[in-house]
Amino acid sequence: MVSEPAGFPPEDVALLERVATRVVELRLEVPAVLALESVRPLSFVAGQAMVFFQPMVQAWLRFGDYRRFAALLERREALELLTRLIERGADARRAAKS
């Protein structure tokens, strides 16, 4: 568990940790980090796009924290934290493999 960064409540950090864990489980850390780095300048637009697509996404997927995740994506600090969590998880998986 990552120490709580300034400005993030524990439940937001826990949500980002769950997302990062799932990304690493699916072995999508490289595309995920690339996507996060490329959308960082447009983070607000990405968060608003998630809000726009919410009705369609929730019709197919059950994601209770969708709105919270969309709000987090609007913050560049959250993107940085998510990137760090994904990289740590990938490093831990590689270390366990060795």
Radius of gyration from CA coordinates? 14 Å
User: Which outline best applies?
Assistant: globular
The secondary-structure element order is: HHHHH
Helix content: over 70%
Note the gap between the termini: 22 Å
By DSSP (H or I, 4+ residues per run), the number of helices equals: 5
Largest sheet: none
Strand coverage percent:
under 5%
| Overall pLDDT | 86
Extended strand count: 0
Structural class: mainly alpha
Low-confidence stretches: none
Provide a compact summary of the structure.
With 98 residues, the protein is mostly helical. It has helices spanning 10-25, 29-39, 43-60, 66-73, 76-97.
Tell me about this structure.
The chain has 98 residues and is an all-alpha fold. The protein is built from five helices and no strands. It has helices spanning 10-25, 29-39, 43-60, 66-73, 76-97. Helix 1 (10-25) crosses helix 5, helix 2 packs antiparallel against helix 5 (76-97) and helix 3 (43-60) runs antiparallel to helix 4. The protein is globular and about 45 Å long. The relative contact order is 0.19.
Q: Helices and strands in order, then pairings?
A:
Blueprint: H1 10-25, H2 29-39, H3 43-60, H4 66-73, H5 76-97
Essential attributes:
98 residues; single chain; mainly alpha
